[in-house]
Amino acid sequence: MPPETIEFYEFGDFRLDLSQRVLLRGGKPVPVTPKVFSTLKQLVENSGRLLEKNEMMRLIWHDTVVEESNLTANIKTLRKALGDDAAHPTFIETVPRRGYRFIAAVTEPANGNGLNGGPAFPSANGTVEQHRPATLRPRVLIGAAVLALAAGAFASVYLLAPTKADSAAAPILSSTFASEQLTTNGTVLHAIITPDGRNVVYTDGFGGDQSIWLRDLETSNNVEIVPPSADEYVGLALSPDAKFLYFVRRPKTGTAKDIYRVPIFGGVPTKIAGDTEGWISISPDGGTISFIRCPYTDEENCSLWIADAATGNDQRRLATRRSPIRLGDNKFSPDGRSIAVAVGQSQNQSNEFGLAEIDIESGAERDLSREKFFNIRSLAWLPNGSGLLLTASRIPTKHYRIWEVSVETGRVRPVTTDSESYDRLSLDARGDVLVSSFARQDFQLSVLNGKDGADRRPLADASQGTFAQNGRIFFSSIMSGNDEVWSVNADGSDRRQLTNDPADDILPTAGGGDLVFFSSNRSGRSQVWRMHADGSDQVQITQNEGGLPLSVSKDGRWVFYRHGLQRTLWRVATSGGHEESVFNKPLNEVAVSPDGSRVAYFERKGRTKVLEIASLTDGEGAWTFEIDDQTPAFNNVAWMPDGRGLAYVLSIDGGTKSLWLQPIENVSPIKIADLGPDSVNSLSVAPDGKSFAIVQGGWKHDAVLIRGLR
Fold first, then answer.
1. What percent of the chain clears pLDDT 70, i.e. is strictly above it?
2. Is the model's pLDDT at 156 over the cut of 80?
3. How many angstroms separate the first and last alpha carbons of the chain?
4. How far apart are CA 560 and CA 574, in angstroms?
5. What is the domain range of residue 354?
6. Contact 363, 352 (CB under 8 A)
7. How many alpha carbons lie under 13 Å from residue 406 in its C-beta half-sphere?
8. Which CA distances in Å does 451 have to 593, 671, 691?
9. Do 185 and 333 fall within a single domain?
10. Does pTM surpass 0.85?
11. Over the range 220-234, which residues count as b (16 or more CB within 10 Å of their CB) and which as e?
């Protein structure tokens, strides 16, 4: 994330706000995706200069290989947002076979007190600033005089600069951005830095056998602390003296997560607590550990606990939340008197995650900020306790940025604005160096021929996909830089983007007619939306708590969806209106039969995993099929078009995936194809029952070392 020397540009009646990554017209936001925003940013920053297509693709997509059609689509979308005409352009000129040039006059801010007498313009936060004409050029180093002007221009806008106290608490906040990627293999999920800033402890092998390593940052020497095993690591922490490492892990095929303690240079791990989640923290004196337990009951969804850090004894519950609210990452304050914890829920895709502080002695709680997020992944206190850094996403921006929260004022500001999605955070004791992991998704939509598992046709990068009755496939993808709904023919031809909104548009499902239904949180939480197959006439049809669409009834009258908070099965008329519950059992994997009379789902009965089929009329089970020695993959069950069988995905010991067919009138399932080790995000059956749309892939995780955030 290179530091921005300019915070916003203006052209016509538009403002391009770089700090908030938003395009404004007359002070009102204009919806654009992150990649479209980046396209406009590059054009404006190079105003008057021809940008070659290859150069633009490199600047916008960095090291990702994309087709030229992606750039063309971005330019088309951008012209639409600006109201520009390609034949008679006001803003973007096309230079045939070469590239594009921004031709409108552009201004940039001069200062914030109006001394130059330039024209005033309302900013995103309501203040008025004045501007001067600007001659734009590629980003270069600027002199001290210009830096002084810039500092004067933005001193009153708290989002743009850390306070002196914060900078003193963490020199990283006042140091120029400098980062070093520590890993590139995509298998490092967790990384933490030692208090002295000299070493990094990290897990390696995500997706396979995992181990824990220690790296000396000065020599780049790596030492294995914990040898490889099939267990999955879900959390790391260090004692303040860096003599002991704490980690949370679980068996690959199990759900129980346990906390272990091991000497930093290796040894036999000792289990100190069980049935926990991955978020742990060690007190400044090294004597106490905090952790989260989530029984996931109505009365106790998640709770914050503390215990003796060496033995796990003297466990005490500090705070609890009822469903659907959960507790996440938690960190002891520098003085050891309180614990900051992430609190909220994101099941309905809304901004309902906040930050609380809990006093250890009294249990008293207070909100650290009124501002909310879609989700908060990780926390790190500034050394003097004046605030915290956190990784969080706020709708409509999908990326997980690094943010700073002031304890005194509760103000929140983003300190990264790049396109990376940061995950875990770890800050050294002086606040000089930060280690973070970041994630990139790598899933692909393919059509699989049911008669030959090796016959697979890749179509596009995607998150979910579904067949329509006419054989066309509708899918959600981040190809444009944001979750949008697309469509494509089963042979890969005629690919089209159907939605274009800064919010998340996901999980499309189509019926027999021209209508497509999808989930979007553009109104603040996940609701079911309807549109025509060409993307026109997008209308919200659920109004209450909404949810995620699953299927459309054969007669085209109903859309079945999973409730956003309760995870029960509901339906709403395709024209909108009354929303009603049809199956009152919380489920993660569920599919409604083509005639709308039955529901299929996975569940556990004692030690046995079963595929259950129940009637939607009376809720009674009609068929039960036991599943032996394998694990049902998440949300991957689909009815065959004739309603006489079910296709589903199984996973052997959490590894190799396979596709199966379970005829309703036959006890024995039929194996269709091996799918390999990658995760399966979605499964859909073609109308003729002979092929399958499968979205499969995984997440790539790496670690980065950051020495400055200014």
1. 87
2. no
3. 9
4. 9
5. 164-441+701-708
6. no
7. 16
8. 23, 11, 8
9. yes
10. no
11. eeeeebbeeeebbbb
